[in-house]
Amino acid sequence: MADTDTTPEAPAPAPREPRKYIDPYLGGALLGVVLFLAFYVTGGGLGASAGINHVQVGLLDLVAPGHVDRVAYLAEMAGGHRNPWAHSSIYMLVGTLLGSMYSLMQFLFVPVWGRVSDRVGRRPVLLWSVFTTAIGMLALGTFLDKPKPPVPPRPRVITELPYVRSNSAYEPIIARMSAGSTDR
Fold first, then answer.
1. By the 8 A CB rule, do 184 and 154 touch?
2. How far is CA 178 from each of CA 46, 120, 181, rounded to the nearest angstrom?
3. What span, in angstroms and rounded, lies between the C-alpha atoms of 68 and 77?
4. Which end of the chain is least crowded, N or C, by CB within 10 Å?
């Protein structure tokens, strides 16, 4: 007796019509407008771009504080008494980098812990992992609960000393340093 299947075949799905996408030029223009408006409204852009912007201006302020004080856009972030590192986007950027470091370390060390698990067994590795994670979280909670010490002002001598020469172009820097300016 021949083996026959009596279940009816399901009909083939009808081909779908391709989705209509927005014109790429129009989409690019709209994205540009949205990003510009986000930068204009927030003053720093979307996501980590504001953090990267403040890091760049902070590094520029370390190297050329006079330039930062003269350019209006840069002075708005770091000129005079302003500190470019005291912006909320810096913390977001640091958190993003720490999160990516966690993923990178996990990617690198999962094979190592797998080999250790093959040698000593799964249970000791899991117990060690839970124990060290608990100790780390306890330490993190303890240190985050403490009051923060005040941040001392940045000494201008350290950041501007390499640029001081016996040249009249450096007289404003020498005058600020000799006046004991610790405004930043």
1. yes
2. 41, 65, 8
3. 9
4. N
Q: How far is CA 96 from CA 136, 137, 165, in A?
A: 19, 19, 41
DSSP character for 182? Answer: -
- The total of other beta-carbon atoms located within 10 Å of residue 93's CB is 20
DSSP string, 125-164: HHHHHHHHHHHHHHHHHHHHTSPPPPPPPPPHHHHHGGG-
Distance CA 39, CA 109 (A): 39
pTM of the model: 0.43
Domain ranges of the chain: 23-86, 99-146, 147-184
- What's the CA angle centered on 45, arms 42 and 50, to 5 degrees? 105
Which amino acid belongs to residue 21? Y
